[in-house]
Fold this protein.
Amino acid sequence: MLELTGITKTFPGVNALDRVDFEAQSGEIHALLGENGAGKSTLIKVLAGAYIPDEGTIRYDGIERHWASPRAAKDAGIYVIYQELVLFPELSVAENIFLGRAPKTRFGAIDYGKMHSSASEVLNRLGHNLDPRTLVHRLSLADQQMVEIAKSLVDDTKLLVLDEPTALISGRETELLFECINNMRMSGVCIIYISHRLEEIFELADRVTVLKDGQKVDTRPVSELNRELLISLMVGRELDDIYPEKTLPPKEPAPVLSVRDLKAPPTVKNVSFDLHAGEIVGMAGLVGAGRSDMAHAIFGSLPRIDGAVTLSGETFNTPTPRMAINRGLGFLTEDRKGQGLLMLLDMASNVSAPVLREFTNAFGIDRQFEIQAAKDEIERFRIAIPSATSDVVHLSGGNQQKILFARWSRACHRVLILDEPTRGVDVGAKVEIYEIIKKLADEGVGILVISSELPEIIGLCTRVLVMREGLISGEVTGSQISETTIMRLATTSVAA
Amino acid sequence: MSSQTIEFFTHSYLKRFALPLSMIALAVLATILQPAFLAPKNLQDIFTQAAPLGIVVLGQAFVVLVRGLDLSVASLMATVAVIATAFNATSNAAIPVIFAVAIGFSALVGFTNGILVTKRNVSPFLATLAMMIVLQGLRFYYTQGAPAGSLPDGFRFLGTGRIGGIPVGLIGFLCLFTLLGWLLHKSEFGRKVYITGGNPISATLCGINSDRIIILCYVICSVMSGIAGLFLVGFVGTVDNWVGRGYELDSIVAVVIGGIALSGGVGTIWGAALGALILVLLFNIVIILGLPVQAQLIIKGVIIIFAAAMFVRVQKV
Amino acid sequence: MKWYSKMSRRIGNSLRRLHLDPSLLVVFVLLVIVLIAGFALSDRFGTVRNLMNVLEQSAALGFVSLGQSLVVLVGGIDLSVGAVVTASAVLMAAVVDSNPELMIPIIIVVLAFGTLIGYLNGYLTLKTGVHPLIVTIGTASVLNGLVLLYTLQPTGGVPFWFEEFAYGRIGPLPIAGVIMLICFAAVWYLLKYTTLGRSIYAVGGDEEAARLTGINSKRTSLFAYSACGFFVALAGAYYVSRTGVGDPRLGEPITLASITPVIVGGLLLGGGKGNVLGTLLGVFLISLLNNLLNYMNISTFIQWVVQGLIILFAVSIYASKVKKL
């Protein structure tokens, strides 16, 4: 059905795909696995015509294809549900589902009556009751995900790609989705399924292909695999070699960060926890559980309506990021490019940004001092960069992330909140980042790690908080930390 | 690594030297076509003309660096000119007062623009467009379409005077250029301008009050326009309701020629100054070659698209 | 503040139930206020005769704002509309002056010319990646230069019968106004009931998402820019018909004027949101307001101030809904 051979795709500074072979058949569910940044999304965009590969061939339905645009692939029956939803918030549910292929009246006009009824019918098949007239921006994320899935059911789809379709939904909706997927497999559709949740892979998939750092590791039937084997295939080494040894910090009498009844609607409903100096605490939960917003609310970049935050005994109740930084609280966001690095400035300016005042004298910014400080950081974190005055755009994800670590660890000595600290970073750099996190903790910084990669949380943290729908649904410590305990807290309702 | 290094260097060389080189090329071309280009009189004309535009462009650069745009500069220039003449002052002693009032008024206009853009979330294009129309309406209403009033004689000195053969306007421009150049490239504020313009979200998360930075940029732009308005009214000698007309677009054209990206965060004070100078050079070449003045419009149109396209390409490298 | 927001939400909900866009509320309320004020303050304002005159005179603003709406919907902006109006008017008047028999062909030529310039704007924007603001300032400058090279004074003329376009009536209805309404209806239909129309919203909303959905976003943008040029040229023809000459300085205020009704009508700069019905109401609002202020002997200068304040008022109401980080 689909055969990709020798697919190579490079972006400035990154080798996103390196001679990847991939093959999938009609009537099978083929799981595509790999850590963030392994090249899954790029591979999908190549097969869907959104990227043109630098090298390699695509054979689909027995013919060699050179997609000129996503349209061409779509016309051939390839449908992709992207992780970042491709929806138009100002259009209605029905219009989104039928965009570009709306039913027409005899006179060639869009037939809204027919469109609305067909949309309802498709949504019903997914067990969902949505008014097809509703504008999409009024829907919850889970509902938007269902609309995205509904789009794939309308076409005569021969190859369906689902990129993390369950990231935003849970429970009954997931079951209905799986039922739909199974029905499609039965009718001979080829399905490529990407997910972080390994148990879904074992439940659904026939075969698994694992990617790592842009290269294919292996393709195997699911029946030959178990969980540990799969993880080590994805990560590329034994688990023990990846994470630094866990050590419990000396118990301090008072926590360095203490959060009580934090509320920042709509996503953060009520959060309380403590963090001690030198401790690495994990924060797990589904996408949309409110973890990032909680971090923003603590840091002062999102308004909170209620709650008390205490930093080293000082209350910190009318927050701005400036006040947080001055009190020694740093926040490394999940979106490295959009909310972190200053791509237009050099490395030294990136490091000094939160504490510019320190580098300023009567004549302005002391450039010499600034560059020297950056050089120290380059050494400290072993950043591969030509010089302290080089651009940061072309660096690898790992080195970019290290620059952000340099920025925040320099500016803030008490608490660091790390949101997805290893997203889009290759395995080697991951190990280095884990070491950095460990070292900072040993220096006495309290660290809160927000991550969707459960192995990372489990491998790194001595204590794990789980968030669900804006609330802390539980806490696990020590030997109790496991994927099962965490996922149970992340998905089931909190007992009242 | 090595190919990346080469790429990096060609990239920054292009950025650094494209403008001065094209300016020199233009000057050489002008001299070949018409040797009178180098006559002291003509050079003085160029600088006298470039000074007010240059001052506005310096201000416009700050606004563009923080992803903004100020369409109200020309309207503000004329309004300041009307205010200056409304004093009907005859004694040169009134000049400092006129300056203070004009700059104060300009700062207020800039502050309003900045508040609209940051606190009310109005797009810069519309906020400053509305400001332009409002100022225009108020000015015409006050003057009833026919401005009267006069300026102290000392004002003429601003526009046409010379100190050691150098036009006063040029000296004023150079002072402001030095001051703003320091502010933009050496001071903490300037760095914050680049950070805010390059990535406003990162700026906020780095503890920078980006709203305040943006508002200050609008204030700087308006104050520069106000000063330019005073220079221009000194140059023209009389006031009319359209002093500085066309400067809003010319200043944007100059900023674009100077390589300051409308998407924010990219560009230098040198770029702004050279952009203004290149534009005025082009205008001057049209005149000394005896071409019709309208040709300036055509050249301006072609150059702006060409320059913008070139910088888009350079930044993609 | 509370009762105000509660009230507007309630009205918004009932509008939504009627399948009307709640963002039309702002312009609608403003229009009602102007009408009530008009009836109360002037006895001539409310006459059918006056209202028909306003409809007739609003045609030019209507055409250019309609064109501008399309470009704004795909996320662009066209600052060359004034120059295109001028160029089409001068071209038309200059050619027809000595060859009145060419009147019909020249109408087609001028409309094609406008469409072509619009296409060129779109093409340059897409090809160079330069912001449409800059591209259209550039084309405007070139066009203005060419027109002024040709003539500095109003020039040319048109056959007498062509003035029917601007002044003619069908019964009490002004022909120009009716044509404008037909154009609005056609574009409204296009946007609502055709795939191309829906694509315009998609491209303006999120170009990359539109591409991934399989929409040809380049062709969609080019269509919007070309259609804009077409309607703008139509406005140029209207001006020639109204004044009988081609005035090379005609277009200057038109560019910015074309934006006001679009903004007041609730279209979002940046694209993807709004409705030409809003633009039409915006056109009526501006035209009626100016008409009323004229009757009240309020100077043009104050009319400018009012227009600026209306832009700010409308925009800050729409904009404050947008969430920032």
